[in-house]
UniProtKB/TrEMBL annotation:
Residue ranges annotated for the HTH araC/xylS-type domain, each copy included: 148-246
UniProt protein name: YesN/AraC family two-component response regulator
Superkingdom, taxonomy of origin: Bacteria
InterPro entries: CheY-like_superfamily, Homeodomain-like_sf, HTH_AraC, HTH_AraC-typ_CS, Sig_transdc_resp-reg_receiver
Lineage: Bacteria, Bacillati, Bacillota, Bacilli, Bacillales
């Protein structure tokens, strides 16, 4: 059973969070509460806590301050809950490498997904060593697994209409939060990556197959052939027909 510290100065909000899910069934136990980050640090230093939930409901500024103070002392997993669905707030949360950001109004399904994700991390850390996750994996990239899932999904569904919003819903992440994580990890936005993968696949099909242009457009997710032509020329500097002819000449 992993011990949880809930940082929330609002007693009513604490109780709502406690009753939202069956914590023990999920493998967690809200061991204690703290009104402020200063109160939480004592528990962290004692190594008694496996996960910290910080409420942003009443004051996201105070919650962010708590997150910052904790991050100065520990790599313990943090989930921020009840915050505004605003890009600037989510982006700031990313700088503290939180495990999840669940915007207000918080739904049970979102919290369960976040807890299950942390559970996998903690279980994996326990199987590798007896040390807590934030000590054994500090040199590793905690975002890599979710980014790899996003990239794999794109590769396997290039012929479909893919959006970051759809992926965020499937993976139970805030859309702006996942988008910023992806950009930080890949040095390009999700849409830039998606376009790159569509165009590179189209180039490969033009080079190695005799598929018609409209078939290739459909294969890489474009239902409007004119839009495919426009995107392909902007990406390569040549039309699809010109690109194919160049490949034949240089072959």
């Amino acid at each position: 059973m992993y011990k949880v510290l809930l940082v929330d100065s609002n007693r009513r909000s604490r109780e709502e969070t406690r009753q939202l899910v069956d914590w023990r069934r999920l493998g967690f136990d809200i061991q204690t509460y703290a009104d402020h980050a200063s109160d939480a640090l004592a528990y962290i230093d004692g190594g008694q806590i496996s996960l910290i939930l910080i409420s942003l409901k009443d004051s996201h500024a105070e919650g962010m301050s708590a997150c910052e103070q904790i991050r100065q002392r520990s790599r313990v997993p943090i989930i921020l809950i009840g915050g505004p669905d605003e890009f600037d707030v989510v982006r700031k949360a990313l700088t503290f490498q939180v495990s999840d950001y669940i915007a207000h109004p918080m739904q049970a399904a979102d919290l369960i997904a976040g807890l299950q994700s942390v559970m996998k991390q903690l279980d994996a850390a326990s199987s590798r060593a007896s040390q807590p996750l934030w000590r054994t994996s500090s040199a590793k990239d905690p975002d890599k697994p979710i980014i790899d899932i996003v990239k794999q999904f794109v590769q396997e569904h290039l012929n479909q209409n893919i959006t970051l919003k759809m992926l965020s819903s499937l993976l139970h992440f805030n859309c702006a939060y996942l988008g910023q994580k992806f950009k930080d990890h890949e040095n390009m936005s999700f849409n830039e990556y998606l376009l790159q993968q569509r165009m590179e696949r189209a180039k490969l099909l033009l080079e190695q197959t005799d598929m018609r242009i409209y078939e290739i457009a459909s294969e890489v997710g474009y239902t409007e052939i004119d839009w495919f032509y426009k995107k392909f020329k902007a990406y390569t500097g040549a039309s699809a027909n010109e690109y194919r002819k160049q490949c034949v000449i240089t072959a």
